[in-house]
Amino acid sequence: MPIKVSIIIPCYNERNTIRLLLDAVYTQSYPLDAIEVIITDSASTDGTPSVIAAWQQKHPHLRIHVVEQPIRSIPAALNAAIQASSGEIIVRLDAHSKPNPDYVERCVTALSQGRGQNVGGVWDIRPGRDHWISRSIAAAAGHPIGVGDARYRFSNQPAYVDTVPFGAFKRTLVDQIGLFDESLLTNEDYEFNTRIRQQGGKIWFDPQIRSVYYARSNLKDLAKQYWRYGFWKLQMLRRYPSTLRWRQALPPLFIVTLLLLMLLSPFFVLTLWALITVLGVYIFILLLAGVQLGIKHKAMALCVGAPLAIAVMHFSWGAGFLWGLFRPQKQN
What we know:
Layout: E1 5-11, H1 18-26, E2 35-41, H2 48-58, E3 63-68, H3 74-84, E4 89-92, E5 97-99, H4 103-112, E6 118-126, H5 132-140, H6 144-147, E7 159-160, E8 168-170, H7 171-177, H8 188-198, E9 203-214, H9 219-239, H10 246-264, H11 269-297, H12 302-323
């Protein structure tokens, strides 16, 4: 008998993407009768529960259970889904995602082989809508200049890593390390994986475990997302300072450097030239990344759009991180 799998999904106002996710789950190579889907809906206002119910009526062979939760909190939604689930293996997905047909099967295989306590793979990042800015954001979100050494966004080499997106793990792991930390509204995955590693466990990255992830569709939403990432990363670092990575330190340090140079440049000519040089080098690097992405995707609009998106990611993340120094754990 195949191992029973519970797919857990936090959800809020996802009527535009939830069908894509459910369709992808329905076409998994893993036996459907061994899969259950637990969706925690955090009081959606766009009719998402109705969309789920309509889909379920047409696909009665897939077991779906919707947990209603009024709190808009991803870790709380994940915990509610885990508590309502019954599978031996838990696969965490996102309502913005679309797993490849063999996603669940590969996760189960990796866990059964003892590759790690939590396993995951690559995000194939796609535009949130058909617009040049959306395409630029998707391209930027998969480029090392934009995301540093986050392997799950671009790597094709299996490895043990600090974290993976979503992740699949055995239910017994929750008994060992606990549920997701509900005091962190973002970075809950990274914190969960940190506890695994602190207790001697391993996080396995397998690039053959793949899912499509739909990026934010405009720069405003991208800025909000990365501000939130930066803010909550700092809150996590207050508890786990040793988990800081160079890619996370650079944006706030860059912003502080620019601010200091801007403040001092009216008084010192060398400082003014340093400011011009730093900005010039930064813009040049972004433009190079844009040209590279434009050639790779055969879309010249990316030459402008990708640098804009990367800059928004850097400055929003860094500003959110710095703001967290003054407003600890009070930002949603």
